[in-house]
Amino acid sequence: MNQDNKLAWSALEYEDKVRNPDWFWALGVIVVATSVATIIFGSYFFAALILISGGMLAYFAKKEPRTIYYELNEHGLKIGAQVYLYENIKSFHIETQTRPTLFVKTERLFMPVLSIPINPDFAEEVEQILLGYNVTEEKMQEHPSEKIMEFLGF
To answer: Is 141 in a helix, a strand, or coil?
Structure first.
């Protein structure tokens, strides 16, 4: 593969959503009410877990997304500092209907399908590079939990 087939791009870690103060108030009310209810039922550990989880949720909701660097090169798919070799990529799918996304199924046990935002202008080039390295194309879509989280404002 020559240098011409190298493709690099960057994208935000996740889609940044503006949350108004009402969203945080609702989160706070739900967390406090649920914690109080679990304390009434005698589950102090679960109440603490809910409070910590609610605090972390608020923290990550306020956090700005990082810009991630992606690259398809002669070795594989590079995401930041992590490289997924072509022989370790089981399959891929490019979704262009809603939000242009490259789905990559890897050999990882935890979260084996990676969801990578791409520019629709070079979707065909991404496909050609992956097919050129004998990576199988397989229909994939985003996990239902991602749709639920998006609906809830995450």
So the answer is: coil
* 43 DSSP 8-state letter: -
Let me know: does 126 contact 7? Beta carbons within 8 Å.
yes
Rounded CA gap, 35 and 105, in Å?
38
User: What tens digit of pLDDT does each residue of 28-85 get?
Assistant: 999 999 999 999 999 999 999 999 999 999 998 888 889 999 999 998 999 999 999 9
**CB-CB contact of 124 with 144 (8 Å):** no
Give the chain's mean pLDDT. Answer: 87
Of the candidates 3, 2, 10, the one whose C-alpha atom is nearest the C-alpha of residue 122 is: 10
- CATH architecture designation of domain 3-13+66-151: Roll (2.30)
Q: What residues contact 17, with CB distance under 8 A and at least 6 apart? A: 153, 154
In the DSSP assignment, the letter for residue 133 is T
H-state helical runs in the chain = 21-40, 44-62, 123-132, 144-151
Contact 86, 70 (CB under 8 A): no
CA distances from 149 to 15, 44, 94 (A): 12, 27, 22
Note the pTM of the prediction, 2 decimals: 0.71
